[in-house]
């Protein structure tokens, strides 16, 4: 990964972006893409769109990733100064207690999600409490002091930083799906540099984690797009905690994942596989018998049906503060997106032969 691209990724990962509160991250994204896009726009809810204007007679293809991450939200300030929280998206109750968190109010406030010391609890009664029963301690002594710093409705995220692992791998919170938004932007940059014939959009959507809401907006608004490629993370199944009889196989470091079935249009699957072969990009295949669980599920039913494809980045420990990806996979997805954009004109129109 080139230096400016890595800086861009680090900036995205360092910027909290829980669903419904994506503005700071979208600023980072739009500032980056303005250097190579012909136009950049943002809608009322913060979906960000950058475009490379191609040949008017060539197809238009959108490369997308979602900006938001899971998190929590302050739902109550208790009399003794502690905070009750609720989920934003699919936050995992089994990994939250005992973690450092940041409450994003007018100014960031540090806190911890309380965990009773092992000395003070009966291990035979240990269980994972629901998020609604967990609490944040910011050090306040009563509600009045707590309300000087936070208020109901402030978003909360884990305070973990991006850490380097061995072998070109990183661990961070929010890899799902800042890496996908990164790849969409970098795919556009590569396509623009290659002056591909197709018109290429890069899109960073909002509120994927709470129901693909931004994609539903964009799918209608970008009414000239002939195909959507939604980039997200998928479960890597090469760690000891995963039952490979039920999922996979998907490995870190083995390349982008192209999904087949359900949402994924067969013409786009063929385009992606041909583009990968032509560019000598190793890819993996994944089956989706019912749905992909990504923005592609919203794009493909918009406007009466728009050909869509889910391309994924292998990710270990999804929806935890320590998600792990291989940077070679992340960069390869951007290369694949540019190759798809380059091959789009020859592959169009995207249709099934009935």
Describe this structure in words.
The protein is an alpha+beta fold. It folds into two domains: 3-69 and 173-347, 3-Layer(aba) Sandwich (Aminopeptidase); 72-158, Beta Barrel (Elongation Factor Tu (Ef-tu), domain 3). 27% of the residues lie in helices and 25% in strands. The protein is built from eight helices and 17 strands. The chain has helices at 3-14, 23-33, 143-147, 175-193, 213-221, 266-278, 296-299, 327-347, and strands spanning 39-42, 48-52, 60-66, 71-77, 83-88, 100-104, 108-113, 135-137, 155-158, 163-164, 169-172, 199-205, 227-235, 257-260, 284-287, 308-315, 323-326. The strands form three sheets. The chain has an eight-stranded mixed sheet with strand order 1-2-12-3-13-16-14-15, with helices on both faces. A hairpin with a 4-residue loop joins strand 10 (163-164) and strand 11. Helix 1 (3-14) packs antiparallel against helix 4. The longest helix is centred in the last third of the chain and has 21 residues, at 327-347. The chain is globular, with a radius of gyration of 21 Å.
């Amino acid at each position: 990964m080139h230096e400016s691209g890595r800086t861009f990724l680090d900036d995205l990962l360092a910027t909290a972006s829980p669903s419904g509160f994506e503005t700071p991250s979208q600023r980072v994204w739009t500032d980056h893409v303005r250097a190579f896009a012909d136009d950049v726009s943002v809608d009322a809810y913060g979906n960000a769109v950058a475009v490379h204007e191609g040949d008017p007679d060539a197809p238009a293809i959108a490369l997308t990733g979602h900006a938001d991450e899971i998190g929590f939200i302050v739902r109550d300030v208790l009399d003794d100064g502690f905070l009750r929280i609720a989920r934003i998206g699919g936050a995992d109750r089994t990994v939250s207690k005992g973690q450092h968190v940041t409450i994003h109010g007018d100014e960031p406030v540090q806190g911890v999600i309380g965990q009773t010391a092992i000395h003070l609890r009966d291990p035979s009664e240990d269980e994972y409490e629901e998020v609604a029963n967990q609490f944040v301690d910011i050090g306040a002594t009563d509600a009045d002091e707590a309300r000087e710093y936070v208020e109901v409705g402030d978003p909360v995220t884990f305070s973990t930083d991006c850490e380097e692992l061995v072998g070109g791998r990183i661990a961070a919170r929010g890899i799902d799906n800042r890496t996908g938004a990164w790849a969409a932007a970098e795919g556009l940059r590569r396509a623009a540099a290659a002056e591909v014939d197709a018109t290429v959009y890069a899109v960073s959507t909002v509120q994927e984690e709470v129901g693909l809401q931004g994609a539903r907006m964009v799918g209608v608004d970008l009414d000239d797009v002939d195909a959507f490629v939604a980039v997200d993370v998928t479960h890597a199944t090469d760690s000891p905690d995963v039952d490979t009889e039920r999922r996979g196989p998907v490995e870190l470091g083995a390349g982008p994942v192209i999904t087949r079935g359900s949402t994924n249009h067969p013409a786009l699957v063929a385009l992606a596989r041909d583009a990968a072969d032509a560019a000598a990009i190793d890819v993996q295949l994944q089956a989706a018998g019912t749905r992909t669980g990504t923005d592609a599920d919203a794009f493909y039913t918009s406007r009466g049906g728009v050909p869509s494809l889910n391309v994924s980045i292998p990710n270990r420990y999804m929806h935890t503060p320590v998600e792990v990806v291989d940077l070679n996979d992340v960069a390869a997805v951007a290369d694949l997106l540019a190759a798809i954009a380059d091959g789009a004109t020859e592959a169009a129109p995207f249709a099934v032969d009935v």
